[in-house]
């Protein structure tokens, strides 16, 4: 008889329906799961500011779990979102370098570096260069675009025209280089 009660489907007697789930404004998960989010401190701050009554419940739950002050639980390392890594932006000088590199015997490519220091999406820029010069263009490195053909001289006019925040003086010609 007890097995029948366990397998019984439908609403349970000790639960009130509809069930209201409160979601965190920082991580967009139910507040019970915020502690598993990599930026748990931000979730705590959001809860304290927007839902102080729920924050007290979460705070009480945390103090009961770890009364002796032992080490925190180890975070999950595989699967899921994991720790969100932010890209480090180099705060060096903002400058774009344009150079020409040989490709084969008589052909060459133009290499553009430094566009990411101006927060320009490299894929969008590569597509723009490919359409503008009617050639192949691709992102090859972390901050490098390779354009097929020798279009180095045209870039000094095209880049400031497309992106007004880049002055022509910030574009440096490195000449011919080996790849």
Structure in words:
The structure is a single chain. The protein is α+β, with helices and mostly antiparallel strands. The chain folds into two domains: 51 residues, no CATH class; 81 residues, SUI1-like domain (Translation Initiation Factor Eif1). Helix content is 30%, strand content 17%. The protein is built from five helices and five strands, in the order αααββαββαβ. It has a five-stranded mixed sheet, with helices on one face. Strand 3 and strand 4 form a beta hairpin. Helix 2 packs across helix 3. It is elongated, with a radius of gyration of 28 Å. The N and C termini lie far apart (78 Å). About 4% of the residues have low confidence.
What characteristics describe this protein?
Translation Initiation Factor Eif1; DENR_eukaryotes; 179 residues; elongated
């Amino acid at each position: 008889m007890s097995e029948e009660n366990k397998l019984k489907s439908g609403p349970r007697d000790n639960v009130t329906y509809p069930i209201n789930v409160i979601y965190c404004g920082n991580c967009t998960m139910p507040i019970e799961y915020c502690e598993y989010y990599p930026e748990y401190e931000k979730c705590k701050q959001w809860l304290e500011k927007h839902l102080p009554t729920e924050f007290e419940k979460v705070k009480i739950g945390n103090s009961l779990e770890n009364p002796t002050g032992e080490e925190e639980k180890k975070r999950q390392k595989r699967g899921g979102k994991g720790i969100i890594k932010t890209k480090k932006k180099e705060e060096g000088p903002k400058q774009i370098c344009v150079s020409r590199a040989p490709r084969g015997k008589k052909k060459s490519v133009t290499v553009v570096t430094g566009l990411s220091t101006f927060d320009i999406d490299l894929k969008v820029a590569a597509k723009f260069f490919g359409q503008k010069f009617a050639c192949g263009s691709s992102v090859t490195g972390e901050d490098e675009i390779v354009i097929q053909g020798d279009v180095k001289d045209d870039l000094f006019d095209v880049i400031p025209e497309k992106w007004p925040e880049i002055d022509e003086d910030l574009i440096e010609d490195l000449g011919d280089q080996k790849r």
